[in-house]
Amino acid sequence: MGRMPRFLLVPAPAVLAAFAACFGRGGIQPNTADISGAWQYTEAFTDLTHGISCADTGTYQMVQTGATFTGTYNQRGICQTPQGNVSNSDNGPVSQGHLAGHTLKFVAPNCSYDGSVNADTYDRIDGHVVCELRDSTRLFSFTGSWKANR
User: Fold this and answer.
1) Number of folded domains in the chain?
2) pTM for the full model?
3) CATH of the domain at 87
4) Residue 3 domain-assigned (yes or no)
5) Cα distance between residue 142 and residue 150, in whole Å
6) 43 DSSP β-pair partners
7) d(CA 31, CA 9)
8) pLDDT at 39
9) Is residue 11 one of the residues assigned to a domain?
10) Which residues does 91 contact at the CB level (< 8 Å), separation at least 6?
C-alpha cells in the first residue's frame, strides 16, 4: 500500500485557486464518458462452489442519455460444468445503466456489471460481473471479469 497523504494547512485563497485549476470552467465541460454505439465484449465468470466456468463473446448496442443508458446484448458462449459443456448463447436487454464520470454500472438478466471506461480514448471498458441463477434446488453464484472494445 502507498503512503498515507499528509494534511497541509493552506490559506483559503490558495485552496480556491487550486480548486479552480482542477475543475477548469466550473463544470461546463462534460466529464461523463460517451458509451453510445456498438461494443464487442468478452466475459469470463465462475461458480467455484458448483465447479462451473463460463466464457462468452458478444456485442452490446448502447443508447445513452446524459448519465444514463440502456441497450441490448447478443452473445455466444459455453459454460463448462461437471456434467459437460452447456451453451450460454443468449440475447436481451441492458437496463439500469448509469455513468459517473468514467465508471459505469448496468444490469443484464441475472447479472450486474460495473466497469471503467478508458479515460484517454473512450474505446475500452474493463470491469467485473456478478451473476446469480437459481434452479429448483440450488443457487448458482458467479463472479468474473469482462471487457469491451469499440
Assistant:
1) 1
2) 0.78
3) 2.40.128
4) no
5) 26
6) 56, 146
7) 29
8) 98
9) no
10) 72, 73, 74, 75
Q: Name 108's Cβ contacts closer than 8 Å, sequence gap at least 6.
A: 73, 92, 93, 94, 95
- Residue 2 lies inside a defined structural domain of this protein: no
Distance CA 148, CA 131 (A): 18
* Residue the block writes with cell 494547512: 9
User: What is the pLDDT, as a whole number, of residue 30?
Assistant: 56
Mean pLDDT, consecutive 10-residue segments, the chain of 150 residues?
Answer: 39 41 40 93 98 98 97 98 96 97 96 95 96 94 98
CB of 10 closer than 8 Å to CB of 16: no
Nearest to 109 by CA among 125, 131, 84: 131
Domain hosting residue 118, numbered range: 37-149
Give domain status of residue 4, yes or no.
no
- What is the DSSP secondary-structure string of the chain? --PPPPP----HHHHHHHHHHHHTTTT-S--S----EEEEEEEEEEETTTTEEEEEEEEEEEEEETTEEEEEEEEEEEEEETTEEEE--EEEEEEEEEEETTEEEEEETTEEEEEEE-TTTS-EEEEEEEEEEE-SS-EEEEEEEEEEE-
